[in-house]
Amino acid sequence: MAARRGERRLVIVGGGASGVAAFVAAVRYGVARSIDLVDPRGVGRGTAFAAKHPALLCNTSVETMSIVDDDPDDFLAYLQSIGVMATRDGFVSRAYVSGYLASRYDRYAALACASGIEHRLVTAAALRIERISASEYRVALENGMTLHATDVLICTGHGAPYVPDAVRPHLGQPQLFESLYPEGRVLAELDARSRVLVLGSRLSALDSALLLCAAGHSIDIVSPSGRLPAVRTATPRACPVPVDAAALAQVDLDSAAATLSWRLLRILARAARAVRERPLSAQVERAREPIERMRREAELARRGATDWQEILVAHMDAAQMRLRDEPLERQRHALAECSRVVGRYLFACPLQSADRLIEYAQAQRLTVRKATPAALDRGVRWTVRWNDGGLDEYDAIVCATGFCKAPLYASAHVIMLGEQAATAGASLRVGSDLRVSLPGLAYPERIWTLGLASQSGAPIVNAVYQAVRQAHELCQSWQAADAAVAPPRFVAEEAQ
Questions:
Q1: What is the pLDDT at residue 493?
Q2: 28: closest CA among 72, 57, 81, 68?
Q3: How far apart, in whole angstroms, are the C-alpha atoms of residue 348 and residue 344?
Q4: Is 125 found in the same domain as 21?
Q5: Which of 217, 308, 379, 392 would staple 272 via disulfide (CB 3.0–4.6 Å)?
Q6: Domain containing 393: what range?
Q7: Residues 285 and 136 occupy one common structural domain
Q8: CB atoms within 10 A of CB 191
Q9: pTM given for the model
Q10: What's the pLDDT tens digit per position in 308-360?
């Protein structure tokens, strides 16, 4: 049964973009008597946006970063208020997002106070969520505190860095970094003009190259594929052509991988061509050498010949709707094929970043190749033995192989959060409505997941605007349910 209006005691676990978006939505819709926001690092200090170096840009446009669902220009307004010249299509430093989240948290915390909503920011890690009854939960924190709630939102974001097998036995040794972040530590510990091996070739690897090459180091990027992200100039949310939902609905998700990939690519190719009557073959490059391919793709982007970027967001949303009610294994099969076909375009990098990387490559400070380390050995320097039998020496190694999902495990009455969760029980079940179900219990809990934490219920969630939409829709549904059982409660007007 839903908590009645004015009775809901809400705990939000996570103070990153998803958690702040949930806080903003809960305050705007006036759906809680009290809201506790819990994060050991405070507000806006998650891995994604804690980077301070100006070269590390968001890989999605300003218009996708607003945490106010019905105001896509809210982030743009914040940037303009602090003197940053930006456009809706622009890519800005990730450090600005951290400041934006803190600013909007402060604004809505003041609004909560003015509206009579009790609120606390609790700077501690949540360890577990204990079920007391069907409408009562206790959130246990690492500092010994417990928070009582009728409703809980899990907004935990990324987990620990993913570490390749060859690297794992050497963790803790000098000049070996399991992640680039926080970037200040890596820069402080590297010797001048180091030769650095970066494992991985996606966005974290590009961050590593941008940061380390700027500091005077020489970088080798390697991965099993040797493929870099594509290049784009925007990630518009509005699609200039209709999404062919009927074609997506007819795709057989159980078909063989090659057939599924071909059908997905045909749908995307038709949409991309419809934007400006330019065939998809004229919008992409297939050069085998990674830097040369990036150089050619940068030229396409500079000429405005990347119409595929106009359709990606809308088609990602449509794919989300197509997959969300499918069984988990079918989702995984389809997602693997989606990633293989469009992954490097979905996670493309800004043109500004590509131009800088190309400059570093031309100065012979950056190389990219297909390779996999078989073994590492630490002497005076790091010796890397490759799968093909070759050897190389490096001063330092940086893992840029992405992040694991934040672990969420459950027993009959407890959800475990954080790294200790892996031994706690079964993987958490999340429905397409984002509600959590505990093992052995017939009904879902009054516990929801948002953002990256919701991926087992919402299989394609990798952008801020998606988490914002989830928070908005959930709080809107709460408001509607509350209005059915109690008269409206005054909520102060939003700060201008």
A1: 45
A2: 68
A3: 6
A4: yes
A5: 308
A6: 163-229+350-401
A7: no
A8: 9
A9: 0.92
A10: 999 999 998 898 888 888 887 888 888 887 787 888 999 999 999 999 999 99
